[in-house]
Amino acid sequence: MRAANGPGMASWDDVRRLALAMPGASEKASFGAASAWVVNQKGFVWVRPLRKSDLAALGPDAPTGEILGVRTPDLEMKEVLLARDPDVFFTTPHFDGYPAVLLQLDTISVADLEDVIVEAWLARAPDKVVAAYLAGDTARAPRPKPATKKKATAKKKTAAKSKQKR
Length: 166
Description:
By secondary structure, this protein is of the alpha+beta class. The chain is built from six helices and six strands, in the order αβββαβαββααα.
């Protein structure tokens, strides 16, 4: 069992730094002020406070620290993580049948967190970006574009089409 909040344990700053280091990753607000990190508009890690239903399902063993939601490639990997380190990884009925785990942030080392974030990113990133990353060519992997620019471009295209119809 690992000591909570011990030396070398992960923090939200580590999550943010590691997630944003992945090609094409960006941070967005999710469910109010909570953060989520996405690639190709798909979440791969997110702040996930426990809800009342989670606390009821977990009972007195419910963790009290900060919780990070992490996407897994599939349900098999989810089970591997849950079995490998139940002091760090856990799930709730809300995630039954869904390829994701929850982890207690203050019980995972930064090195292990990095592995988990990279695997989550690999599960959600576009194939070409993953191939470039795995080949060590992160320069070819695209950086995210601001959402406002996409919306502005879409509006310009719609306006141009309207003019063409006139």
